[in-house]
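As the next step, I needed to go through one protein, both as residues and as discrete backbone shape codes, included below for the reader:
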Amino acid sequence: MTERVCFLREKDQVLTLASQPGRLLETSRLISVDLDASAALEDLDLEYEELWDRLDLDELRALEEKAYDLTDSWYRRGEPRLPEWLVEVLPLDRVTWCGVFRDALLARKLFERVVTTEVGEICLCTPHRGGSPFASSNDVPDAVWAFQAQQTGLDLRLVPRRSSSKHSRWQRYAREMDRLLTAPRRIVEGVLHTTQSRSLGEGPILFYASPGERKRYAGICRALKKILGNRFLALTRGRRGQSGEGVFRTLESFTGRISSRSPGEELQLAELPVAEEYPYLFRNEHLFTYFDHHRKSRWPKTSSLLTHLDRFIREIQPAAVLVTDSSYYYQNAICLASRKRNVPVVAVPHSTTPGVFPLRLRADAAFAWTEAYRQTFIRDGLPDDRVFLVGVPADLLRGAYSSRVDSRRSSGDPERRTVLVLSAGTKRGLLPFTDLSTYPAMVKELVTIPEDLRDRVDVCWKCHPNNDHFEFYQVVARKAGASNVRIVRTEPLEALVNQADVVVLPTTPTSSYLAALFADKPIVFCNGGQVGTELFQPADEQGCVVIDDVSGIWPAIRRLLFEDEYRESLLARARAFREEFAGESDLQPADRIAEKMNQRLDELALSSTTR
């Protein structure tokens, strides 16, 4: 009898297949590559396999590096049938394509490790959008499995996923973006009148942040506006009913209508030289709709955006352009337009601690919140005299997670202790941030409070709002019978950290780490096997207890909760590290940024020969 394999990446896919007639899930071999999908399968009491033990960390790193290389090679200048205008446009969007190629490479490798001669049918649960079930980057792994199934002669069953309110919200957002992109061109007089002087040090200073970064940068931008006056302009992409926390202007209001009309030349994917080596990407009919969207809409809009930005930079004549180092195509487009006009580009960090991001935006100079980030910029190729340590902005700590308030509160009993767990996300697409074959054991250990502590200790697990596994944590906590464990996503980070007695980091930390460090809280870091070599990791000498084995987690927490001398010695080391690590510790670096932007712009201006 042939075997049917179901490839499951999301909880919604599990729920859709569970509603199918004929006991589809019960009679199939179930493959899960997501902890939330695994949790849903456990709730249904179904047997399943997880695949992360099929790929070791070295293989994952090698596949990611191959994806980075592919983002460069597939559009390299001189390849046949590559439209000339795309040579400039495609490199701007390398972050997107890195994710697409990485997921494709991983999906194909997993297919090869799973599919055997006993397999006769592949079952995929897919969202049907516009007549195609594989129309977004999120669907790339399924599209690769569909291609591989057909190439190997297997039967392919596609089950339409039930509609999702999240997709409906995205459709509304897309319609609103189309409305904004067709708005009439308007130039703000308060910016234009500052362009009368041609002096580098007297022109406007522009700051761009993506829509998701507005909240965290609103405070520092208000401070810069107060210091720099009309010279400062904060920009973001337009979004429905929002202008960006009262300080950001929409970029569309300056650039005007961005045309999506194709320049008339097309990229023939199937005929690219790399198509022979990667047919599951470039000759995969299931991905034609996805690439077609980029060819007909996104790439032409990006080309049009460059034209408008060139005009905008020419008219505004900024002294400098500040951007965050998260290298998405809008940031890259602004940098390219600025460099064409010999305007220096200065980067500020997206987060408070550097992570794995080989496609970080390349700037002419940078402001670093911490010494660790300063060294990251220097490793990226910036001279050390062009990277300025300015201290950590308070807004990045307060805005590190969503600031909406959860309705549930802790008991407030002064006799009880609170252990706050801050997970900073576990994966990006198919690529895990941490070793998912060992991570579940760590989660189960953390939510299983020792018997003698259950009347004295509460655990609050704060999830990252994206790329995390809220449902998985809930299922594990429920199965552990942990009535005094809360799993939350929306409570303010600052309030939770202030209420905590001990902070536990089960994954590689980001801004959450410094939130605990500056709040003078003892920290336990669970080193569960990180994917990537550039990740910032806390260490013992930084005043952080590092646990390499799950059995040591609760003994470390117990000591920090009830042994005052041990706790104080740890905090003393943490304070010394904080002063060295973050430089200025007043959490208000705006004045130092403004001083350098006012007085040292001549040091940031580079000739075209040194860029």
Remarks:
- The two ends are 63 Å apart (CA to CA).
- The chain has a mean pLDDT of 78.
- The first helix runs from residue 11 to 18.
- The first strand starts at residue 3 and ends at 8.
